[in-house]
Design a protein that fits this description.
The complex is a heterodimer of chains A (about 675) and B (about 200).
Chain A lengths: L1 E5 L2 E5 L5 H7 L23 E4 L6 E2 L9 E4 L3 H16 L15 H9 L22 E3 L9 H9 L6 E3 L6 E3 L13 H5 L5 E3 L12 E6 L8 E7 L2 E7 L12 H5 L13 E4 L2 E4 L2 H11 L5 E5 L5 H14 L3 E3 L29 E5 L3 H4 L1 H12 L4 E5 L10 E4 L9 H4 L5 E6 L8 H14 L3 E2 L2 E2 L1 E4 L6 H5 L4 E2 L2 H8 L2 E5 L14 E6 L4 H5 L2 E4 L8 E4 L5 E4 L12 H11 L9 H11 L42 H5 L1 H11 L9
Parallel strand pairs in A: 1-5, 15-16, 15-25, 17-18, 17-20, 18-19, 20-23, 25-26, 26-27
Antiparallel strand pairs in A: 1-2, 3-4, 3-5, 6-9, 7-8, 10-11, 11-12, 13-14, 13-27, 16-24, 21-22, 28-29
Helix pairs in contact in A: 8-16
Chain B lengths: L14 H11 L11 H16 L6 H10 L4 H10 L11 E6 L2 H5 L2 H12 L6 E2 L5 E6 L11 E3 L2 E4 L3 H12 L7 E2 L21
Classes of the chains: A alpha/beta (about 675), B alpha/beta (about 200).
């Protein structure tokens, strides 16, 4: 530890810390552009200059290590003058286009120019002009505004693992870009917008939409992948205008995957905004009362089953389970993909190591998963671990670029046992099993084999749980926690086991599998194939439109908040089910969200543990029942990262991404 | 041989370059092959000169170098675009590089530039002559100040130039000749005009 005095305040910081970190420890704010705590230090913007006793010149605090007994001054005439000088140079080539810049109001340069800028420019020469670059359908570039902090270059190379951005040319001709015109091949590209301190990289869909001070901000949780990234939903007038990540060190740090960030325009299209009832073969608009009565007329005498989708909140699932139990349903299922999950113990279906503790692992085997495209933020965590060294990764399944090197250990379930040799010697081995690897005929065998691999490698100990199941969506774990797997499974129900089906946001399977005579109730927010097949449509709320609990892949229960009301006559899903239970004669024992949550927490105590990571360690290493596995290779888990569920399929932004990335236009020659 | 004016579809090191590459890589420790990016870029540029008559590094060549050195292509683009010695666009067969830094300028680099323009028909720096033979570039100090002004043609220094001698040089290049590099005044190395004045007879 080193003792440092900052403006008379004595602080102790670790040896090797920077002066800037010492200043922050002392509560002093240091202006900066290029420095970012999650990226390497570049030290090229010079905005963080401070005065250090006995140093002949101002020092760049971000790149200057502390020494014991150092005296730092952050607010002297010399410091202020130096920063003013730096600011003047930064502004020489920065256009004065704040009024038409989307960064306006949340721009570091704008804010700091208020503190260190001059009231007018002494620079009379022509400003330099830089051609805008194309870096994909998500990011709009205005390169005149770039101040060459190189944060985007470092983010792309270090966090996203796609070293495609760089600074070409030198001096006055230096430009930030990709040199070869192409879309940045990252699922985390939206974070470049957050990381850019000026308006050079801004959101293309958000261009000229609104100003930050006009937005209402709601803290919520992303459900479009199973990481459960914390998000802030920015709205104005009942419309979601953008989604930004929130800081949560144990989940998403401060990153957010592109699907969660940009697909919200799908919330405005193809929505179910009123109840519909099928009459004489065609759907017609109906009132809520008519819809419920149609259900009440149809259900008696039919064997009833229920299937829930992948992005539903736990409250709706809990309410539906109560209703189904009351109605004597023959089957409940939440596994639209047919994954052979074992819900007898939570650690059979959770990411037990925990996202944050990936950083403690020293060897990893990925089975039938593509973490880069299934959970990009989680993959960034793996990459972060890899970049610290002393870590090896192996893959069983299709080998794709994961942004870190991975040894191919095999392609089929029969290769799983052999991977123990790869994990041998590891102190903290991890096995990551993709949910897609369970959605095959020998899925139960794959699950048991993966567990056995983790056990054989010594990964199931009281202080370490190395078995991990990677889910695909934010609503996939909660139904498992709630035991929404009962009686007939989905395949049996669709094979005629059920004559009436209640589909709660279940749009992830081929609606043609629903037998012809079945009475289908579709409750959900988007009108897709399942809604088109339905006999009664109950319009529900999307994740930004309701209060709901979601469980991420590591079993962390987080609350999403209502940012905007559901459109039209649509309602929050648990309320719909509560109202239906009244009409169907099996009233549910709760009238408010608080009562529902109390009931849910009483029946399933995991829901009382808000925002808690997985329990550390494994107390019982006996695995799921063994089953045979075949040597059929694992399929590619995700072909199209951008369009995976009703929201993303309705999103124009995601459609543009899919078009740009899956069918890239021919590369243009460099200028 | 006319000069290729566009990006080729592919690039592969030829036998002569391939023979050179192991010697270059051997200079750097294992795992630090990326350090060889500058020599390899230079190698590619010379190969382009051999094969097309224009010494430049097309993007496909940079990609080939990136692959050879297992580094991201972007990192190669950054290096190639940083150093003005690498031409990222096609140039003429002869690269006329006029040093315009103070010593050369004081000794008449403006005259050298004017001679280059008059002899080749090039209007200004950064352009290529209509016949595709010459590209005129202004460069910073070439380190030949003692014999200023200096004109670098490809890799050769021509020193102590004036308007007339520059014209003669370019006419010779046009004829396909390659005059002997060095001082146009017959100076030996950087010794004074007329021969060495110190250390004479040191051999005795």
């Amino acid at each position: 530890m080193a003792k440092v005095t900052v403006d008379g305040i004595e602080v102790e910081v670790p040896n090797g810390a920077s002066v800037l970190q010492a200043c922050e420890a002392a509560g002093k704010e240091i202006p900066r552009f290029c420095y970012h705590e999650r990226l390497s230090v570049a030290g090229n913007c010079r905005m963080c200059l401070v005065e250090v006793e006995k140093a002949p010149k101002p020092v760049a605090s971000c790149a200057y290590p502390v020494m014991d007994g150092m005296k730092v001054f952050t607010d002297t005439p010399m410091v202020r003058n130096a920063r003013r000088g730096v600011m003047e140079f930064l502004l020489i080539n920065h256009p004065l286009d704040c009024p038409i810049c989307d960064q306006g109001g949340e721009c570091d340069l704008q804010d700091q120019a208020m503190a260190y800028g001059r009231d007018l420019s002494r620079y009379a020469e022509g400003k330099r002009a830089v051609k805008d670059k194309y870096v994909g359908p998500l990011i709009k570039t205005v390169m005149n505004r770039c101040i060459h902090c190189t944060r985007c270059v470092r983010f792309a190379a270090e966090v996203a693992g796609v070293p495609e951005m760089g600074a070409t040319g030198r001096g006055e001709a230096m430009e930030i870009g990709t040199y070869v015109e192409k879309a940045l091949t990252s699922e985390l590209s939206g974070n470049l917008i957050d990381i850019c301190p000026v308006g050079a990289l801004t959101s293309r869909p958000y261009a000229f939409v609104t100003r930050p001070w006009e937005l209402a901000k709601t803290d919520s949780v992303d459900v479009l992948d199973a990481v459960g990234a914390n998000i802030r939903v920015d709205t104005r007038g009942g419309e979601v205008l953008r989604i930004l990540p929130r800081l949560h060190e144990e989940v998403n740090e401060e990153w957010l995957a592109d699907r969660g960030r940009f697909s919200f325009d799908g919330l405005k299209r193809r929505r179910l905004d009123r109840p519909w009832v099928r009459q004489d073969g065609a759907l017609r608009p109906a009132s809520w009362a008519e819809a419920f009565q149609a259900i009440a007329r149809a259900l008696p005498g039919r064997r009833l089953g229920a299937i829930v989708g992948d992005t539903m909140d736990a409250e709706a699932v809990f309410a539906l389970k109560g209703l189904m139990t009351g109605l004597g349903a023959v089957g409940l299922d939440c596994r639209q993909d047919g994954a052979k999950l074992d819900i007898s113990r939570p650690d059979f279906y959770l990411f037990n190591t925990g996202i944050a503790r990936i950083e403690e692992a020293d060897a990893l085997v990925i089975i039938g998963a593509d973490p880069r495209r299934e959970a990009p933020v989680l993959n960034a965590r793996i990459r972060k671990r890899w970049s610290q060294g002393g870590f090896r990764a192996g893959v069983i399944g299709t080998a794709r670029d994961l942004t870190y090197p991975a040894t191919v250990l095999g392609a089929a379930p029969t290769d799983i046992a052999g991977a123990a040799a790869f994990l041998a010697g590891a102190q903290r081995p991890m096995v990551v099993l993709g949910r897609a690897a369970l959605a095959r005929a020998d899925g139960a065998g794959v699950l048991a084999a993966a567990w056995e691999l983790a056990r054989a490698a010594g990964g199931l100990r009281e202080d370490w749980h190395g078995f991990n199941l990677l889910h695909r969506f934010g609503g996939q774990v909660a139904p498992l926690d709630l035991g929404f797997v009962q009686g007939l499974d989905m395949a049996a129900m669709l094979a005629g086991g059920a004559e009436a089906l209640w589909l709660l946001g279940a749009d992830g399977f081929d609606a043609a599998r629903i037998p012809a005579g079945a009475f289908v109730i579709y409750q959900g927010h988007h009108g897709e194939a399942a809604a088109a097949r339905a006999d009664v449509i109950l319009p529900g709320a999307a994740y930004t439109e309701k209060e709901g609990s979601y469980v991420n892949t590591e079993g962390r229960v987080q609350r999403g908040r209502m940012a905007v009301p559901p459109p039209g006559e649509a309602r929050e899903d648990w309320k719909i089910i509560r109202a239906a239970s009244e009409v169907l004669g099996v009233p549910l024992p709760f009238d408010s969200l608080e009562e529902l949550r109390a009931e849910m927490a009483a029946a399933h105590p995991v829901f009382a543990r808000l925002d808690q990571g997985p329990l550390p360690g494994c107390t019982d290493d006996s695995g799921p029942a063994p089953a045979p596995v075949t040597d059929a290779p694992f399929a590619v888990p995700v072909e199209n990262y951008w369009q995976v569920d009703p929201i993303t399929r309705a999103s124009e932004t995601m459609a543009a991404c899919a078009a740009a990335y899956l069918n890239p236009r021919p590369l243009l020659a460099a200028e | 041989m006319s000069v290729v004016q566009q990006e080729p579809a592919s690039f592969a090191f030829d036998a002569e370059s391939e023979a050179e590459i192991p010697r270059i890589l051997a200079r750097y420790p294992q795992g630090r092959q990326a350090s060889a990016v500058i020599p390899l870029l230079y190698l590619a540029q010379r190969q382009m000169k051999r094969s097309t008559g224009s010494a430049w590094v097309p993007r496909v060549a940079m990609d080939a170098i990136a692959e050879r050195l297992s580094m991201p292509p972007m990192r190669v683009y950054e290096v190639a675009s940083f150093y003005f010695m690498f031409n990222t666009r096609p140039i003429g067969r002869y690269h006329l590089q006029v040093c315009g830094t103070t010593p050369c300028w004081l000794r008449g680099s403006d005259e050298v530039k004017r001679a280059c323009q008059d002899a080749t028909g090039i209007a200004d720096y950064g352009q290529t002559s209509a016949d595709g033979l010459f590209t005129l570039t202004e460069v910073e100090c070439l380190g030949g100040c003692v014999n200023a002004p200096v004109l670098q043609v490809d890799d050769d220094y021509y020193e102590d130039l004036d308007y007339e001698s520059t014209l003669r040089l370019i006419e010779a290049l046009k004829r396909g000749e390659r005059p002997k590099p060095g001082s146009a005044l017959g100076r030996q190395g950087s010794a004074p005009l007329g021969g060495p004045t110190v250390l004479t007879g040191a051999e005795d």
